[in-house]
Amino acid sequence: MRSGARWLAPALVLVCSMPSSARGQSELPAELVRRVLSTTPLIDGHNDLPWAIRESQEAPMDVDAPGNDLRRRTSFHTDIERLRAGMVGGQFWSVYIPFEATEHGAARTQLEQIDIALRVIAKYPDVFELARTASDVERIYGSGKIASLLGMEGGHAIENSLGALRAYYALGVRYMTLTHDGDLDWADSRAGTHPHGGLTAFGREVVREMNRLGMLVDLSHTSPETMNDALDVSEAPVIWSHAGANGVFAHTRNVPDQVLRRLPDNGGVVMVVFNPPFLTGREEATVSDVADHVEHIATLAGVDHVGIGSDFDGIRAVPVGLEDVSKFPALLTELARRGWGERDLRKLAGENVLRVMREAEAVSRRLRRERSPSTTTIEELDR
């Protein structure tokens, strides 16, 4: 039992001691979800709080300003009280920078965003702790804190440099979204003109070096061709930190069915986003719409290949029933009402992501023995 779950109600403790058959006859969906999340970390793949703090109207970039104080009710989707209410056990904090940052120094902006995230984590040591490995996540969650991981959103931040990629990893970044909303010199975005037809030779080298490091390859925002090329190259499971299912609603930010069918061979996970335009094509959606995307991915790829990637504090509209970080249990409760059992709910909540992390770490250990850091340049590979 997780030490941070001391608030678990006596009735729920009794439920935990029941045989599974008896629980199945009497346990309500909300009770099942509460029990699952009391012993399995709910890991959200994408929260843009660091950018929200950077853009704060009251005090931009100041994590100590009263309006940005997470111990109070904030104007964001996120604060500590609501994270606790949402039973969040692990959070990938997105250290997003806009594509336009390349015009005035992407590296500077990226380092500032990493700094903001690290200062947030350090400011609340009783609540957050930086995690670098799957074992860290489990240990931190077991201590009652929220395991905090960093995810870069957009390969434009490495400025075509594998050395920069390694430096970001050393600072704690554990995934990188290959593209954001613009084509790179080495990869096609879902939003660009697709000049490369996927990944270039240097783009494939980026994926290989990420595998060697143990940095997860995030295919959110990429074109289908880039997704397929990355799946062809990657020796480790990939992720989509915040995406939907194209088979439920056709949108360029969603994963095509053809790609979903490849996931069992790769082992990757699609973490389902809460952004209504991706879910329904409108500014309106419900928790049921999110559940539809989850179930479509689970049907085509398997329940081992789906997770949760809210995009809170990076989206304007939110689904009814999933208004902020306090509402995560509502999604699992909706799925429990649809017949999802304990084992599958645990996989969705966090076990799938932890498996991907462990497998990526194992691939990294092998590749680090086999080859040195790549010093290949884009000029050498993409002439």
Description:
- The protein has 383 residues and is an alpha/beta fold.
- It folds into 2 domains: 36 residues, no CATH class; 342 residues, Alpha-Beta Barrel (TIM Barrel), CATH 3.20.20.
- The chain is built from 17 helices and 10 strands.
- Strand 3, helix 7 and strand 4 form a beta-alpha-beta unit.
- The longest helix is centred in the last third of the chain and has 29 residues.
- It starts with 9 loop residues before the first helix and ends with a helix.
According to CATH, the homologous superfamily of the largest domain is Metal-dependent hydrolases
> Unreliable runs, pLDDT <50, ≥5 residues?
1-24
Main sheet attributes: strand count, strand direction, barrel closure:
6 strands, parallel
Total beta strand runs = 10
Question: Remind me, CATH topology of the largest domain?
Answer: TIM Barrel
Q: What class do helices, strands and sheet pairing give?
A: alpha/beta
Helix content: 40-55%
* Rg, nearest Å: 20 Å
Give me the number of helical elements: 17
Mean pLDDT: 93
Q: What is the count of distinct domains?
A: 2
User: What string gives the helices and strands in order?
Assistant: HHHEHHEHEHEHEHEHEEHHEHHEHHH
CATH class category name of the largest domain: Alpha Beta
Portion in strands: 5-15%
Envelope shape: globular
**End-to-end gap:** 56 Å
CATH architecture of the largest domain: Alpha-Beta Barrel
Task: List the main descriptive attributes of the protein structure presented here.
383 residues, TIM Barrel, four-stranded parallel beta sheet, 43% helix, alpha/beta, single chain
